[in-house]
Amino acid sequence: MPKMIKSLLVLPIIAGLSACSINIASNDDDSGQYKFHKIERQNKQHITQLNMGMTQEQVQLLMGKPELTEAYNKKGQAMKILFYRTQWQHGDGQTTKDECTALIFENGNLMGWGDTAYQQMAMF
């Protein structure tokens, strides 16, 4: 086949392919589900560095801003619960308590974290 005919056959294929694109989430993609998974990994890693008795300020310096918070008074003690996203449950783009790990503070000090601590706190 002459060179000119080959070029004419290849040009439409190249033009057609140039309009195609594939969107693959990369590490730089901070949108959608990938963003939640990245936050969850970071929060899980930070939670392993927590120690009982840390102040709320120390915890938030490590963990950042919580997704959700609760506060109340229990027998004269100021209770505060910070919720950090750690597990994906719903694909709705919203963060709910069942997608978070609870960090429980009493009078500004970390008293526990996780489901067991949150459930025990609710019993008193």
Structural commentary:
By secondary structure, this protein is an alpha+beta fold. The chain has a single domain (27-123), classed as Beta-lactamase Inhibitory Protein, Chain:B, domain 1 (2-Layer Sandwich). Helix content is 40%, strand content 23%. The protein has a four-stranded antiparallel sheet with strand order 1-2-3-4, with helices on both faces. The termini are far apart. The model is unreliable at 15-29 (pLDDT under 50).
Mean pLDDT: 81
Nearest-angstrom radius of gyration?
25 Å
The helix count comes to 4
Helix content: 25-40%
| Number of structural units classed as domains | 1
Distance between the termini: 86 Å
Spans of at least 5 consecutive residues with low confidence: 15-29
Secondary-structure element series: HHHEEEEH
Tally the beta strands: 4
Query: Which word captures the global form?
Result: elongated
Properties at a glance:
alpha+beta, 4 helices, 4 strands, 124 residues, Beta-lactamase Inhibitory Protein, Chain:B, domain 1
How is this structure best summarized?
This protein has helices spanning about 5-20, 30-45, 55-65, 115-124, and strands at about 70-75, 75-85, 100-105, 110-115. The chain is α+β, with helices and mostly antiparallel strands and about 120 residues long. The longest helix has 16 residues, at about 5-20.
